[in-house]
Amino acid sequence: MKTSVIGTGYLGATHAACLAAAGHEVVAYDVDRERLAALAEGRVPFHEPGLADLLRSGVASGRLVFTHDVADVADAEVHFLCVGTPQERGGRAADLSALRTSAVEVARHASRECLVVGRSTVPVGTADDLAGLMAGEADVPVSVAWNPEFLREGHAVDDSLHPDRLVLGVHDDAAYAVLTEVYARWGRQGTPIIRTDLRTAELAKVSANVMLAARISVVNVLAEVCERAGADVDDLVRVLAADPRIGPDVLQPGLGYGGSCLPKDTRAFVARAHELDVESAALLHHVDLVNMRQRARTVDLVRGVWGERRRVAVLGIAFKPGSDDVRDSPALDVATTLHRLGAEVRVHDPRAAAQAARVADHLTYASSVEEACADADVVTVLTAWDDYTALDPVALREEVTAPVVVDGRTCLDADKWRAAGWDFHGLGRPACAS
Predict the structure, then answer these.
(1) H helix count then E strand count, the chain
(2) What average pLDDT does range 143-167 have in this prediction?
(3) Per the domain annotation, does 136 fall within a domain?
């Protein structure tokens, strides 16, 4: 089946490569010619394991083509909209301008009856709006469906090829039949397929992100109570994780969530809920407030131990391990705030340093952990990379001026570091344990 993918960012590039791997003829469209050229050569402008090989394979087979001419997608049977829906500048709602522009462009150029499938994360009701827009522009019948993505950065290829569910939001049986044909390979491998209506499908991704955001903020509230009460947050988390109704996933207290999805999706959901007069959505506004407070608490913790020279080593700048993404990164926010408060900040990250340097060149970047920690007054771990959890605190003590560590991700073995002579601090840790 000939399909198009509109937008070749993180979502679009991954989806195009995986559709081609499934045997479809894919034309990926974008206006960014430099990005298109890089992707066509298998050069991925972000860190995503396995994607470069998949892109090269798709191009070599002839099943994957990149284009900047929207006319090249005119005869596709299915068009996947994969453009960004960032937070509005100065607001909290989602900015749908790029999505609307893309939908109109597809409708104007479509030369055959087709299905336009949204994969971007949008406010509920967006699909109906797009259907109205496209109906006024198309010369052929154009239907709309919604197929939300649930990709995790650093695992996007595996999440695409082996998803835990596929959500197909459709108006009728005809659209459902088309999408089940697109995803026939996934059906054969036993992937659960959930058929629903457009509005429920639109709510699926943002609701999942809101649930995850709430879980993270709740555990951080519990951690702060532990900190104030002199309780052990590590043991508390183990108790909670053993409850089958709760489980261990996404139950790590610390600096909080960031990235391109959870923060903006939670805010957009609250904004849309308020438009729908759902007063209880105020609860989710406090989820966001708790998350942002974790950054301020981390800064205060570092300021309390950084010494007169204020030399701070920051280990980890990506918003999470396994990614080079620094968009709305709590680690980058904390590092920048410490710099603004007069600290000499040296940053190390195994993947994200180059990306961070493009947006935060006021910070100093080190090529090794040892370089970042040399003569430091305090070492902070702000992204839970395995590189840092595996550090030898005995050896690292030789690099620093003062053996003081702040664990911003509750990822270090506190007893091990204290036994090596470090003054250990962390969010959720009682002051008396330091």
Answers:
(1) 18, 14
(2) 97
(3) yes
